[in-house]
Amino acid sequence: MAAWAGESPVATARRELAEETGCTLHEAVHFADHRRDRGGWINQLALVTGLAEGQPAPTGANCWTRPSSRQKPCRRKPRPPRAR
């Protein structure tokens, strides 16, 4: 997720949710920011919560599908938890 210049964290979350899933975000609240220096580059997160409405429908634009004449819906496999 990347914010456009001048875009608020709530607007970014709404846009990204719509792009990624086709759902809409209601009652969104930006509740925290987190910034972490990774030794040369910085991770900056804006945490937003709200209610998502709609039926998720991935477009396949952000994940891999099998090449074939009959495209199957993109279904991501859950990632295993990272070891700490």
- The backbone outline, from C-alpha atoms, is globular
Mean pLDDT: 78
Q: Give the oligomeric state.
A: single chain
SSE-based structural type: alpha+beta
Task: Describe the overall structure.
15% of the residues lie in helices and 31% in strands. With 84 residues, it is an alpha+beta fold. It has a domain at 9-53. The chain has a two-stranded antiparallel sheet. Strand 1 (24-37) and strand 2 (42-53) form a beta hairpin. The protein starts with 8 loop residues before the first helix and ends in a 31-residue tail after the last strand.
Summarize the structure.
This protein has 1 helix and 2 strands; from the N terminus they run αββ. By secondary structure, it is an alpha+beta fold. It has a domain of 45 residues.
Question: How are the SSEs ordered, and which strands pair?
Answer:
Blueprint: H1 9-21, E1 24-37, E2 42-53
Antiparallel strand pairs: 1-2
Key traits:
84 residues; alpha+beta; two-stranded antiparallel sheet; 15% helix
